[in-house]
Design brief:
6 strands, two-stranded parallel ribbon, elongated, 191 residues, single chain
Length: 191
């Protein structure tokens, strides 16, 4: 194995982006015209990791600040939605006496067999939101649906579904939801 020598890693190359894409270290017409610029539009999650480094490297290599205003788009990263679903799922199970410790005490554990999330629109930074979770199926597996609702904009942001499969403590999958767990779950009308 030999590492490619003509590659910059993402963390390092992002430092150089404001000036390197315009021909630097040569004094190209593009560099003279576009650098430095006035604004950078970005997400708030990379302010420290990339934006601060862009400023430091630009000052070091060019003696200039690459931009003067940073406009944070205030977008909440969609990857957090799965975390929000997990919190709602745990609250739903806990309300039925099926917290992790309680399920283990019954001799079982849950494994996420499938998880789907359909993003409809983004949450923005500072938005108030609610995640609602409910059971769709409990006999064969725990099938849970979710809605992520933006209270600030009064609209749905995402719909999701998670399927949990019970296993015994040795990891052997149960073909149906075990009786001691099923007793704590609601009886659902056939769909």
């Amino acid at each position: 194995w030999r590492q490619e020598e003509d590659v910059l890693d993402t963390w390092f190359s992002s430092w150089l982006w404001p000036f390197s894409v315009m021909g630097w270290p040569e004094k190209t017409p593009e560099l003279k015209f576009f650098y430095p610029t006035t604004d950078l539009v970005t997400g708030p999650d990379i302010i420290f990791f990339w934006v601060a480094r862009m400023i430091m490297s630009s000052l070091y290599f060019t003696d200039e600040v690459p931009f003067h205003d940073v406009d944070s788009q205030r977008v909440v990263w969609h990857g957090h939605y799965l975390k929000y679903l997990e919190i709602a799922r745990c609250a739903l199970l806990r309300a039925r006496g099926l917290d992790v410790e309680q399920v283990v005490a019954l001799g079982y554990q849950f494994m996420v067999g499938e998880s789907r999330c359909r993003h409809l629109r983004p949450l923005t930074y500072g938005s108030r939101f609610r995640v609602t979770a409910w059971f769709v199926e409990v006999e064969q597996c725990l099938d849970i649906e979710y809605e992520l609702f933006d209270l600030t904009e009064n609209r749905r942001c995402a719909k999701a579904r998670t399927m949990l499969v019970a296993t015994d403590l040795q990891g052997r999958m149960c073909l149906a939801t075990p009786g001691p767990i099923l007793e704590r779950l609601p009886r659902l009308a056939p769909q």
